[in-house]
Design a protein that fits this description.
Layout (H helix, E strand, L loop, with lengths): L1 E5 L9 H11 L5 E5 L6 H6 L6 E6 L1 H10 L8 E6 L5 H5 L7 E3 L9 E4 L2 E4 L3 E5 H14 L7 H12 L3 E7 L2 E8 L1 E5 L21 E6 L4 H7 L14 E6 L1 E14 L2 E12 L2
Parallel strand pairs: 1-2, 1-3, 3-4
Antiparallel strand pairs: 4-5, 6-7, 6-15, 8-11, 8-14, 9-10, 9-14, 11-12, 12-13, 14-15
Helix pairs in contact: 5-6, 6-7
């Protein structure tokens, strides 16, 4: 049996008839059961009923993947998992060089994921945690969506925030017991993959199959410097700047001098002062 889990509330999710036809095109020999993801409260109990010949298809993008890995512990289940692309940013697929593919096995990528803890609450993440301008972009775009705004240009929004609204902070970063201090920070991220933000190559040297994450800090920048460096994030060239520091580690804590917005795989949190990340 092939279980196909989808989110009918997502604006990017295909309708059920389309999914049924698509699954037949992919493998007509597979009998499919379609599951409304909003009806699944316990992902582990859901996966416990799978037999050895069953597999799972997740319909969605980065946000859906983040939801699934926090609903079920895939380290505990011997289930083959596929992704049918139906997202917006698709940074996960971009990272594994499969952006052109609609259907791909992703089993190995759902295991040994890093965990971020904020205010005592812990969650796994797929791509990255962003503290600073990128977090503010997510918070501000959520406000715009709530007002009915569509077709938001995230790059334009980021540039406006860099120039006018975002206030630089100081950051203390502890990586595997070693402390680093940075001033005038615009971005402080912990990356499991190379990309976030719909194509921003924040951590070009990061390997999601490794046992470490990449801490990326943009520091000692004025607004003009930040604006000049920002376009380079799409190619990964920003890491050549003296204003960008990358540190690889397994146990990270980042603390800001004042509350700053944050995003986890594109989901925003407002006014956070600290987060920690562990990857085993």
């Amino acid at each position: 049996m092939r279980y196909v889990i989808y989110n009918p509330l997502s604006s990017h999710c295909p309708d059920l008839d389309f999914l049924k036809n698509k699954m037949k095109e992919i493998d007509e020999s597979k009998e499919c059961t379609f599951v409304d993801g909003t009806t699944v409260d316990d992902g582990d109990k859901f996966l416990d009923k799978f037999s050895k010949d069953d597999d799972l298809v997740i319909v969605g993008g980065d946000g859906t993947l983040n939801h699934m890995v926090n609903m079920a512990d895939f380290d505990k289940h011997d289930v083959k998992v596929y992704l049918y692309k139906a997202g917006n940013g698709n940074d996960f697929l971009r990272d594994i060089n499969e952006l052109k593919e609609d259907f791909i096995e992703i089993t190995k990528y759902l295991k040994n994921l890093p965990v971020v803890t904020i205010n005592g609450e812990s969650n796994k993440f797929i791509n990255g945690v962003g503290f600073g301008v990128d977090g503010m972009v997510c918070v501000e775009s959520d406000k715009m969506k709530a007002k009915g705004k569509k077709n938001i240009n995230y790059t334009t929004l980021a540039i406006k925030l860099l120039l006018f609204k975002f206030k630089r902070v100081n950051a203390t970063v502890n990586v595997d017991g070693k402390e680093y201090n940075f001033k005038n920070v615009f971005i402080g991220s912990a990356m499991n993959g190379k990309y976030y933000g719909g194509g921003m190559k924040e951590a070009p040297t990061q390997d999601r199959n490794s046992d470490t994450v990449s801490v990326v800090v943009w520091h000692d920048l004025n607004r003009l410097n930040a604006l000049m460096n920002f376009p380079k994030i799409f190619t990964g060239e920003h890491i050549k700047s003296k204003h960008c520091t990358i540190i690889h580690g397994k146990n990270i804590t980042m603390t800001y001098s004042k509350p700053t917005d944050l995003q986890i795989d594109g989901e925003s949190l407002h006014a956070i002062t600290s987060y920690s990340v562990i990857k085993k």
